[in-house]
Amino acid sequence: MTICAAPVENPAGHRSSMRRGACPSLMTPMVTGDGLLVRLRPAKPGFALRELLALAEAAEVCGNGILEVTARGSLQIRGLRAETVSLLAVKIAEAGIEVAEGLAIETPPLAGLDISEIVNPLPLAAQLRTTVAACQPRLILAPKLSITVDGGGHLHLGGVTADIRLRAVRVDGKTSWLLALAGTLATSRRIALLDEPAVVPAVMDILKALATIGDNARARDIDAAILKAGLVSVADVDAVEPAEPAPNPAGIHELGAGRNAFGLGLAFGQIRSQELRTFIEALDVFGATEIRLAPDHALMVLGIAPDRIAVARALAVGYGLKAFPLDPRNHIAACAGAGACASALIDTRVTAQTVIDAAPSLLDGSLTVHVSGCTKGCAKPSASALTITAAPIGYGLVVNGAASTAPNAYIEEKTIRSAMERLEALVRQRKRAGESARSCLTRLGAEVITAAVQQG
């Protein structure tokens, strides 16, 4: 169960979140290695260009100029001080930016625009927000509790973990909403198929039950059998076919009628405010009208004419952004690392680049290499095929585990490149025709992988 931080006063009297499990916000910024961190969720689907420009300028004035898009698609501003958090709030208000607070109700980045959607999920998400806000007495819920409302489009939220999942589906020609609990699209527990009028009452019953359990309760604490018994499902939940994995957000996504969304990933989730400002100014020249945040540390740019996309893409590459689905950086999850987080003991960005340079065969898209500055594993709490984390002698290598798992091998700091080169050689030599890196590593097993990286 997630343990949520109690607010603590810093020397300047500002409340700060200090434990993993609390959600940093303007009211409760989080203490990190480079100062305070604030996480923002836009109340609207996206930002106008002027709004994101204002946020980039505010990050430079109030923080250290580093902005991040999280794995879930929220915006983080780093390097704030106690006395500048309130100034940031003023600048956000002056720019007319409405920030979502409270329960996270998330929709796909192209919600309402994705031509493959079964249903536009925005109206249902708005109805849920209104109902939750109007609930009396006010529901006290776990800070990281989240709901996804997915219209069933191709750029869906299937890979995002959520407590309550709602996904539009079609069964026997009828549209309904699949309600599931606790996990990703693949791992969550299916509860019921509901007609739309039944969705909000069902979700509210779940939220009220969680509030009754306590302010740390998550959906995994709900008895799924009891919940199923109390709901009338319009069809068998097992009749719903599993969805294909969502494509990487980087690249061009067709919206129909000659319109496109241009997806860009931030390299290791970060960008400097000055770089973002100059890039946005160029996008304005190309005709961009809106930028939406997306999971996997990405931005979705709307409004660029099709004949200007190629130029915009070339410019994005020049700024170090991930503009192509096959960029190997798409397959590395790296936290902020030493210097940006007080818990981190390694420079995760340098380590990630070492993996890219020394072991490119690992990054074929079949697995994600997780580089973590400590055992908390904030960038990817779940297990990865390969996790590189900080250890007393330099690095620990975890095979098929999370950063909190005891390492299978230890690597000295000075030998990390050669260890990755040996792992690259192992995969190249032992991979069978048509076999992915994940399948190869799974077949070889932890002992063979450990022996390879620890040679010499």
Task: Describe what this molecule looks like in 3D.
The protein is α+β, with helices and mostly antiparallel strands and 456 residues long. The model is unreliable at 1-20 (pLDDT under 50). The relative contact order is 0.09. It is globular, with a radius of gyration of 22 Å. The two termini are 42 Å apart. It contains 10 helices and 23 strands. Strands 3, 4, 6, 7, 8 and 16 form a 6-stranded antiparallel β-sheet that branches. Helices cover 29% and strands 25% of the residues. It has helices spanning 49-62, 82-94, 122-134, 196-213, 224-229, 273-285, 309-318, 348-358, 416-430, 437-453; strands spanning 8-9, 15-16, 30-32, 35-42, 47-48, 66-69, 75-80, 99-100, 104-106, 146-150, 162-171, 174-183, 189-194, 251-256, 259-265, 270-272, 290-294, 298-302, 332-334, 369-372, 384-391, 394-401, 409-412. Helix 1 runs antiparallel to helix 2, helix 8 (348-358) packs parallel to helix 9 and helix 9 (416-430) packs across helix 10 (437-453). A hairpin with a 3-residue loop joins strand 17 (290-294) and strand 18.
Report a brief summary of the structure.
The protein is α+β, with helices and mostly antiparallel strands and 456 residues long.
Helix percent band: 25-40%
Structural class: alpha+beta
Please state the average pLDDT score.
90
Number of helices, where a helix is a run of at least 4 consecutive DSSP H or I residues: 10
Percent of sequence in beta strands: 25-35%
Q: What is the distance, rounded to the nearest whole angstrom, between the alpha carbons of the first and last residues?
A: 42 Å
Indicate the overall shape.
globular
Radius of gyration: 22 Å
Main sheet, how many strands, which sense, barrel? 6 strands, antiparallel
Total strands: 23
Extract low-pLDDT stretches: 1-20
